[in-house]
Q: What sequence folds into this?
């Protein structure tokens, strides 16, 4: 398949130009990286995580930890919502059908009332 | 002063090992528009792994000794250490306190001392210049 420029009203899309830009960015990134410090000694404290001078904990603290207060404040809501998330496709299809019925019903009823 | 070998900014990591914050405020004063050391490329960084210089204030409390050693180890070579204030240099008014294991040079090697309680920003800037020269020498392998 031949790669061509796709012109639209708003602009154009050219995969070759896009690839060229991508390669240029990679080259610049590699150059900047090559300017970095080379003095780090592997296997020493110099390559360890800085944890305010403390030994870093072995267990990782996940990023979801920052939402602790959020989850705690909305605990009742999440407890309720989690019951629906059974992981079973049958349940999700059932929810889908119910919602579609509700939408169709409201459209029909709304349409009839409008008429 | 010849600083050609060190041809980039001097990045500093600041550690408070029990200071009363007097010296720390003077360090901040050196960064404010009146002195503005950042125009020379001297700036504070958030991790010792990015730093060329370790700047220590305060006599070293028992709790901070191991942490200070670890932070010093995390600074990449060549590195230099600067102590700002009497407490870090000699122990100051806390000398021989039961809760201290300092001064700083008992824990890690120190290159430059800036005495004062607290030292003025001019003194801190002069200390940084001395330190810069030492780093130059270290980079060239003179010491």
A:
């Amino acid at each position: 398949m031949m790669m061509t420029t796709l012109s639209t009203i708003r602009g154009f899309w050219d995969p070759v130009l896009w690839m060229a830009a991508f390669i240029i960015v990679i080259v610049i990134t590699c150059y900047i990286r090559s300017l970095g410090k080379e003095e780090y000694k592997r296997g020493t404290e110099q390559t360890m995580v800085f944890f305010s001078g403390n030994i870093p904990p072995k267990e990782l603290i996940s990023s979801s930890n920052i939402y602790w207060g959020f989850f705690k404040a909305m605990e009742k809501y999440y407890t309720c919502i989690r019951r629906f998330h059974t992981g079973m496709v049958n349940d999700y299809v059932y929810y889908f059908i119910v919602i579609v019925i509700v939408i169709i019903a409201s459209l029909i009823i709304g349409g009839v009332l409008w008429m | 002063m010849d600083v050609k070998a060190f041809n980039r900014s001097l990045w500093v990591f600041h550690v408070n090992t029990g200071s009363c914050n007097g010296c720390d405020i003077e360090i901040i004063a050196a960064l404010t528009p009146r002195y503005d050391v950042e125009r020379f490329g001297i700036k504070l960084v958030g991790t010792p792994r990015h730093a060329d210089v370790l700047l220590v204030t305060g006599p070293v409390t028992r709790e901070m000794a191991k942490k200070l050693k670890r932070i010093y180890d995390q600074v990449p070579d060549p590195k230099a250490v600067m102590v700002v204030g009497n407490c870090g240099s000699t122990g100051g008014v806390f000398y021989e306190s039961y809760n201290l294991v300092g001064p700083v040079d008992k824990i890690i090697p120190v290159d430059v001392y800036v005495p004062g309680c607290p030292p003025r920003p001019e003194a801190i800037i002069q200390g940084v210049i001395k330190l810069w020269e030492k780093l130059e020498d270290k980079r060239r392998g003179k010491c």
Remarks:
- The longest strand of chain B covers residues 10-16.
- The interface with chain A takes residues 15, 47-49, 64, 66-68, 70-71, 73-78 of chain B (CB under 8 Å).
- Chain B has one domain: 7-140.
